Amino acid sequence: MQGLVDSMMRYPLASVLAYFSVGVLALLVFLSVFERVTRYNGWEEIRKGNVAAAMATGGKIFGICNIFRFSILANDSIYESLLWAAVGFVLLLAAYFLFEFLTPVFRIDEEIAKDNRAVGLLAMILSVSLSYVVGAAVM
To answer: How many domains does the chain have?
Structure first.
């Protein structure tokens, strides 16, 4: 199977479609993991107009995609790219838990659920910023 996929990756259109498909699938999987570890329902909060939840979720989406971007640029095969994207995602997830742990004055998830936009903005900027650090490390 790997030989078939590798031979198809020589064609630019097939390569673009493969990376796009795998990237969207990885985004859905990784984002669902983020949803499971947060104490609020991000999509329900966004539906209600919670801007802080939208910013935090947007930062996670950007961070996941940015890490996948770096892993595509750095690796020869789609398999290696997916593997390094998963490693990068685990690091981004660890940063989320560290962010929650290092702010003992308030709970990040509770503040985002209350639409504290300052916390939502900070969460977004943290996800975006760390995705560049993680991405550079996986290159």
So the answer is: 1
